[in-house]
Amino acid sequence: xxxxxxxxxxxxxxxxxxxxxxxxxxxxxxxxxxxxxxxxxxxxxxxxxxxxxxxxxxxxxxxxxxxxxxxxxxxxxxxxxxxxxxxxxxxxxxxxxxxxxxxxxxxxxxxxxxxxxxxxxxxxxxxxxxxxxxxxxxxxxxxxxxxxxxxxxxxxxxxxxxxxxxxxxxxxxxxxxxxxxxxxxxxxxxxxxxxxxxxxxxxxxxxxxxxxxxxxxxxxxxxxxxxxxxxxxxxxxxxxxxxxxxxxxxxxxxxxxxxxxxxxxxxxxxx
Length: 271
Known about the structure:
Order of helices and strands: HEEEHHEHHEHEEEE
Number of strands: 9
Oligomer: single chain
Radius of gyration: 25 Å
Distance between the termini: 80 Å
Shape: globular
Structural class: alpha+beta
């Protein structure tokens, strides 16, 4: 009896260690997969961080990988009321106030839709950690600090491209809002700009960025956001390394079967 118990003890220790090691490996894989997906999400969210330095305003997005808490802050430029007419100033104040209240009213719906999209993608990609700790999105609207804004305007921030020659934008005058991206791309390339090629390893595993990259050959696509109006970011460089950013909105569509899908551009800017 004693010999039987002594023989079973090493076996129990052996299997106990095996079980513990297996659990550690499984937990490690779960965390590693979550942080890989979170890093990919972070890159896509960074593409949404559109802001104007001279006004300290725009859209700012940040995420916490451990709590899966995403903050989306819309910073409006300060209402400085620089109008010569009091009537015009009053109307401007009313429009600005209505815009601010309107944006605040839709933030709960924006948060809910963003949460639904992120958590749906977590289930599709089998992100167990995100299933146990679901994404929570908080959207808010703020007004940029007028004092900070005035300081920024009085003391301009030195641009990393300040020593470069100014970009030639004469060839970009044909660009119009809602133009098809394929047409806008031809205009940009004909104007002497070159697409800033993205490494295929940096593309998110799912989403339309990969489709645009491989099927359309638009290697300058940097990222596409999975929420809201599904904005995609494209980047081009000139010979002086100035950067032209083009933003599109909506899902990629095709008019006829067999043709490449296309997007509509919403805005473009120099960085």
